[in-house]
Amino acid sequence: MSRPVSRVLTLLELLQSGGVRTVAELADRLGVGERTVRRYVDHLVDLDVPVESVRGRYGGYRLAPGHRMPPLMLTDDEALAVLLGLVAGRRTGITAAAGTAGETAAAKVRRVLPERLRHRLDAVLDSLTFTTAPAGSAAPEAAVLLPVADAVRHHRPLAIRYTGGSSGSSERTVYPYGLVAHAGRWYVTGRDLSVGADRTFRLDRIHGARVLPGTFEPPPGPGPAERVLAALATAPYRHEVTVRVRGTAEEIRARLPRSVAVVAAADDEGDGEGEGEGEGEGWCRVEIRAERLDWLPGLLASLDRPFVVERPDELRGLVADLAGRLMDAARGTAPPRG
Predict the structure, then answer these.
(1) What is the pTM (predicted TM-score) of this model?
(2) Terminal C-alpha separation, the chain
(3) What is the pLDDT of residues 130-147, one digit of tens each?
(4) Burial (CB count <10 Å: 0-12, 13-18, 19+), residue 98
(5) CA nearest to 80, candidates 122, 129, 112, 115
(6) Is the Cα dihedral 176, 179, 182, 184 positive or negative?
(7) N or C: which end of the chain has fewer CB within 10 A?
(8) Cβ neighbours of residue 303 under 8 Å, at least 6 residues apart?
């Protein structure tokens, strides 16, 4: 690479670090005269890099927003951070790049890296393993994510076309409170004006989003993340489970994710169950919505707290079956063959 071209790229890297750079500062960093700096700036402008001149005592040059993204100059650490971020986002399902955009972005970065750095980054990526399986892809499209985020930020109404689980496609007008990424999916929570109630929408089920005129004032109370977790915990499922657990709400919430259970202090102190260890502690009512019950006995046992199943009756039988199997295991006896 010739020295003038190398210096032009170095100038671009300096401008990308942010702020206004004086001509004298740039000349000193590049080891050239101020007149040469201005010529290098002209080269960048000819390449459609949006460099603008700032007048005044502390004037100089800075990068301005352009109609397209200019070339990026990345250090070794920055290149590693970008590639690892793309890989981690794809593995966890939190990437907002639909389709193959994440893969093509990573390929572009790797393609222009110096050979020395590319081999080092390949060594990191080839030797990296994850303890969890890749999350299912539910990335929102940019045409949906960007207007939703704009509406959230500026408190503007949003028109969406939404496909629900069983209700089919419908047009909604929403006051969006916030964007939330949870368990590999993106959600927007807000006021659904068509039903006059707060709702949570999955972004991958939104097939059109348009910001509307006007503004609204977000209500006080729980933040967007709390609203989404509460909505997931109270979503309609086949079984509605209620269990009373001895302990404080904070202790129980530490073991039960907010997206799984709603925990609140019980109005009563129980009927005397579980007296002895922990006597004097209060009780909490735990509400869980579930499509299946078979996983709940193990979850309740893992709390290591006295509990009473209020409903459904079927869960009591499953808890008794688990207790019997645990007792057999403790005695070293084989379970009966069915």
Answers:
(1) 0.58
(2) 77
(3) 777 666 656 788 888 889
(4) middle
(5) 122
(6) positive
(7) C
(8) 245, 247, 252, 255, 256
